Amino acid sequence: MPIFDRAHTDDLLSFLAASPTPYHAVANAAARLEAAGFRQLRQAAAWDRAEGGGFYVIRGAAIIAWYLPAGAPAHAGFRVVGAHTDSPNLRVKPLADTGSAGFRQVAVELYGGPLLNSWLDRDLGLAGRLVLRGGEATLVHVDRALMRVPQLAVHLDRGVNDNGLLLDKQQHLTPAWGLGPIEDGALVEFAAKEAGVSAADVLGYDLMLHDVTPPTYLGRDFELIAAPRMDNLVSVHAGVQALVAAAGAGAAAAAGEPFSAIPVLAAFDHEEAGSESDTGAGGPLLGSVLSRVAQAQLGGSADDYARALAATVVMSSDMSHAVHPNYPERHEPGHRPRLNGGPALKTNVNQRYATDGLGRAIWTDVCERAGIPTQYFVGKNSMPCGTTIGPITAAKLGVTTFDVGITSLSMHSAREMGGADDPHLLASAAAAFFAG
Fold first, then answer.
1. Which position has the higher pLDDT, 366 or 248?
2. What pLDDT band is residue 416 in, cutting at 50, 70 and 90?
3. Which of 149, 373, 383, 410 is spaced 20 to 30 A from 175 at the CA atom?
4. Mean pLDDT, to the nearest integer, of 397-405?
């Protein structure tokens, strides 16, 4: 029978449904932080000395948020939960309107490494941001069956079930959204109308497709969940929940002992594309924010900031793999993480993950204090693993970092699968990590 925190998992599924793009994920995270008393700071504005409180910065589809405990010294280390807001998907090209054989279609580009077949024969919506004159951006979310990438009928591909499905990334993944001749500007006009703005004012856009099937519980006892974008909005949601809890605990203990470290959530964009951007983990965003916290908000020196980094620990949180019941041979035989077994500590001696012995010790202590189970993921020697923001952040800032994540199946599919217990266990671990 399931033991999960139903309220937490319900809230996660709502968050996933409301966040079809990284821009929506950031907006929804910010709304939750605002409700908890956090205040947005602008990168281009001066930051004043602060005596405490919650703050956040948004840049594109990335958000950095932190809580300053009252009395925190300028050299106080940071406890950072790192995650990413983006997921592999189909994104609209600059000249969006195309077509063939009497169909109106939308030109798309592959983002990240999606499981291509998972995007076939699904009802797809449209979402993202429209950038208007003057640089202002507005979000759009068309959450209904609007497009579809139809698969070729088996009658016209007789060998598909024996030889496997072969997809040409340019030719076979263009979605249809109507019949008739190509209409230049039709998609932007449609999106602008849905967003309540004039198409003439839309000078740029970042639009992408999403599966409109709602997130749901799965299984006889509802012990599983199926949803899009679990990789990696599960970690973003857990980080927000844990940071809000840390702020509440910090406010309640304002007259007592200060936190041993400053809790930070860093949710980056572009992890699935390599993290090398102004909003990715490979860019300067996190370091810039942490430097300004230590020096502008806490009144410290460059030496104080260097001391703070020396005392900083990053918990890089990204999805991990559970053993697949139909492909057990693809997994390392001595390490078989399962769904609902708790977050997995991820290791790779070639630094695809940043965990080392110190990181393992810190994580073990966190789990013991939180009273949650943990397990271990390591890739099979004959099968290279993926990577995360962990090694990138560690190298960028020179800070102790370890990699964790809840387990899943169907990673990078348009619809992924996980355990209903694990999201709350991850959030509990993040809260314990923030508490030091």
1. 366
2. very high
3. 410
4. 98
CB atoms within 10 A of CB 382: 7
Q: How many CB atoms lie within 10 A of CB 257?
A: 8
Interatomic CA distance for residues 114 and 175, integer angstroms: 15
What pLDDT was estimated at residue 251? Answer: 60
Contacts of 156 (CB under 8 A, 6+ apart): none
This prediction has a pTM of 0.96
Q: Is 317 in the same domain as 367?
A: yes
Whole-number Å distance between alpha carbons of 59 and 295 = 20
Q: Are residues 208 and 349 in the same domain?
A: no
Higher pLDDT, 39 or 51: 39
Euclidean distance between CA atoms 231 and 388, whole angstroms:
11
Mean pLDDT score, 329-356 = 95
The answer to whether 70 touches 258, Cβ cutoff 8 Å, is yes
Left (φ > 0), alpha (ψ -120 to 50) or beta: where does 319 sit?
Answer: beta
- One-letter amino acid of 277: S
Residue 3: the pLDDT is 57
CATH number, domain containing residue 185: 2.30.250.10
Residue 220 placed within a domain: no
What is the β-pairing status of strands 262-268 and 78-84? parallel
**Statement to judge: residues 177 and 269 lie in one domain:** no
